[in-house]
Amino acid sequence: MDFILKKKQFRFDVSLKVEELSLVPFVNAVLYCKLRFIGNGKRLIGQTPGLELQDHRVVWNKKFTFPCKMTANSTTMELDATCCRISIRREMKGGRAHHKIGFVDLNLSEYVGSGSVSRRFLLEGYHSSNRLDNSILKLSIGLTLVSGDVCFKVLVGWLAGWLVGCLVWLIVWLVD
């Protein structure tokens, strides 16, 4: 007899603040951010106002608060990835058109239980020919559990996994 394991469901309130974009390779431009979930649904979260560059940076300090559903495997209780894309766009033709500059894909499940944290992310280009010269997007992220079991495992980010791998390698090297 086959058993179908249901996924556990969790609801979180997400507080995401888009603080600034720095090291922008343009002299003058009007830039804004568009936030949406990626994967199932592709639901729009919101967007920042278009602001002009000053000294190769733009400061939005725009806070978004939105609900987010997450699921977890019922046996391991590890949260599944839930991604949000922050897309940076440049206004063209007086705001009637736009050009996509770059994006950051943010896995919200990595930040569950870590309080409010501030992180910087390098922009990724939409096309391989689009070089972004290391533009950095600064975000503040916080998640609060609204409903669901408090027992779950948080996904370890790629950097933490990389550091653990380096630590294991170092221990093996020291022992030999």
UniProtKB/TrEMBL annotation:
<dbReference type="InterPro" id="IPR039931">
    <property type="entry name" value="EEIG1/2-like"/>
</dbReference>
<feature type="transmembrane region" description="Helical">
    <location>
        <begin position="155"/>
        <end position="175"/>
    </location>
</feature>
<keyword id="KW-0472">Membrane</keyword>
<keyword id="KW-1133">Transmembrane helix</keyword>
<dbReference type="InterPro" id="IPR019448">
    <property type="entry name" value="NT-C2"/>
</dbReference>
<feature type="domain" description="C2 NT-type">
    <location>
        <begin position="2"/>
        <end position="145"/>
    </location>
</feature>
<dbReference type="Pfam" id="PF10358">
    <property type="entry name" value="NT-C2"/>
</dbReference>
<protein>
    <recommendedName>
        <fullName>C2 NT-type domain-containing protein</fullName>
    </recommendedName>
</protein>
<comment type="similarity">
    <text>Belongs to the EEIG family.</text>
</comment>
<keyword id="KW-0812">Transmembrane</keyword>
